[in-house]
Amino acid sequence: MGNPKAFLSIKRKEAGYRPINDRIKDFGEVEQTLNPEDRRLQASRCMECGVPFCHWSCPTGSKQPEWQDRLFKNDIKGAYEILTQTNEFPEFTGRICPALCEKSCVLNKTHEAVTIRENEAAIVERAFLEGLISPFVSKVRHDKKIAIIGSGPAGLACANRLNHAGYDVTVFEKDEAAGGLLRFGIPDFKLNKSVIDRRIDLMEKEGVKFVYNTTVGKDISTGEILEKYDAVCVAIGSGVPRDLNVEGRELKGIHFALELLKQQNRVVAGKEFDNESRITAKGKNVLVIGGGDTGSDCVGTANRQGALSVTQIEIMPKPPVDENPATPWPYWPVVLKTSSSHEEGCERRWLLDTKKFIGNGDNVAAVEVEEVEWQKDEKTGKMNLLHTGRISTIKAELVLLAMGFTNPVYDGLIKELNVELDCRKNVKVDGNQSTSVDKVFAAGDASTGASLVVRCIASGQKTAQEIDKYLKNK
């Protein structure tokens, strides 16, 4: 460690965002970057704690103190090598991870955590820029063939690890390009899709084969997959969105969040849609139902499309600001999160339950909501929802449902495989990521339910390890 007291003399410095009046005019990445010297100084703030809680809290087990030290010493190659020992895709997590590591950083007790996420992104970007990353092709190749179904972060991580281990890996993707929700669910202003293309290009040069526009269970039978491949990894994500079945749901102008986000990402990529099928917030009052990250992405997208106004509602209470005694350090703090999209213009409201959609002809025009309260049952400890009877309406010509996802799509692949499901209708796996069907494994959201990108990467890596063990035992 270059300077063990740097955290005392150097303050946390974030790169920040592009000016609001500039960034809402396009879909370019909103986050800026620090110059290399400032980034080195930020890396020097890592204290290399005796108990690195950052390492403990990261699902991939990232060795933050080690690669922070390499970054401080300007050893970008060494930093990248340490970083990718535990994380296949630091360019993804360095942009969109909520940074569980920073929340558990010892310095976060005074809200001065090391800028771990930004440092991570800086390392991988410099490594690519300086030509330090080249295709790795394993000298040892096995005669076993593996099918990865789904090219989201879990599928990609699993494919990458198995390919590096010397297996013949083919990734099947139902859409026209790889990435899953990284490509089609996360807006370009958070993750430019050239970043994904760069990684996929590297994986292809290393030997991974990608088959696009192919839905297993429809375009190709599961029987053919099971017959042709020695192991199969199901990584199709959690694709069934949570719906809101209230009066007026059939009205035009009510969409699931991903309908908007997927279409807009394709528009940015150059695809054209006719006026009838185009979902746009231009000149409309927009209501986003759901207070999570997907809802925030809808807010940012609506503002860029030219929304007249944007309102985001949540049925849960407003989280505390800055401190929450119920979630002390080093745990993930359940506190109010204000994203770059919220800063661009959005009215946020809490403790509202949607009662019905009100139409003007066939189109939605307003939403009736009711104020609610949450009351704890002293006997069971369960929180019960209480309706107050206080009704109001919110004007909205476009409503976006961003209330999360329930489980993977059952029809097709899952149904044909006939794998056992858990109580939440996710693919049930044991400690080895194995399903109830021989040689079929599952990774990521398909087996856990909707989660974070970093957790999906970790799951994909573990599944690759278990598939490797399975094939070697065979």
Report on this model:
- There is one protein chain.
- The chain is an alpha/beta fold.
- Helix content is 34%, strand content 18%.
- The strands form 4 sheets. The protein has a 5-stranded parallel beta sheet with strand order 3-2-1-4-15, sandwiched between helices. The chain has a 5-stranded parallel beta sheet with strand order 6-13-7-8-9. A 3-stranded antiparallel beta sheet has the order 10-11-12, with no helix packed on it.
- Strand 11 (363-376) and strand 12 (383-395) form a beta hairpin.
- Helix 10 runs parallel beside helix 19 and helix 14 (257-268) crosses helix 15 (293-305).
- The longest helix has 21 residues, at 453-473.
- It is globular.
- The protein starts with 5 loop residues before the first helix and ends with a helix.
- 42% of the residues are buried.
Task: Write a concise synopsis of the structure shown.
By secondary structure, this protein is of the alpha/beta class. 34% of the residues lie in helices and 18% in strands.
